[in-house]
Amino acid sequence: MATPRKQALPRPIDRSFYARDPLRVAPQLLNKVLMCRDGRAGRIVEVEAYRGADDPAAHSYRGKTARTEVMFGPPGHMYVYFTYGMHWCCNAVCGPGNAVLIRALQPIAGLERMYAARPLAKNDRQLCNGPACLTQAMSITKLQNGIDLTQGESYTIVDDGTPPPRRPVRTTRIGLTKAVDYPWRWYVAENAYVSKK
């Protein structure tokens, strides 16, 4: 009897994927999978693009600072920032000053660990349905700022063969006071794990 082949794990997305305009990267990140090496994983179902000097809402709009240094480094790194004095948010860097904010995940693995990290979540939908929720569920903090998502170390984004949606919903971004009319948010239509419809 033949020995069954061990299934290969999905490979991290290549750096060249990120080294493009964030308006192209963002919708193509939908349905990719954010993975932690401890087994937690979630499918990306909602994103927002931020476009540096062309975008008054981007942290990098006024140039490089100590806070935004990672955004001006190599594409494919994680940019993590603190907001509202209480929450972490994570982004995939897309080149000088550009990034894509990961706004929501559909949990697909390691849910016990996610619930342990988010004890107030009442159901699977509440685990990762917002940028602060997903960083809590995935234990992403300032310690992950600058990690290389393409190396498959502590955190990575992989393509498991699920294509991005052919017609993602496109809207304006959420919770901004600048560039509020830019339609740079995308999400998977009819997905229950999106933060806001």
TrEMBL record:
One of its GO terms (molecular function) is DNA binding. It comes from the Bacteria. Gene3D superfamilies: Methylpurine-DNA glycosylase (MPG). Keywords: DNA damage, DNA repair, Hydrolase. Its EC number is 3.2.2.-. InterPro entries: Formyl_transferase-like_C_sf, MPG, MPG_sf. GO terms for biological process: base-excision repair. Belongs to the DNA glycosylase MPG family. This is Putative 3-methyladenine DNA glycosylase.
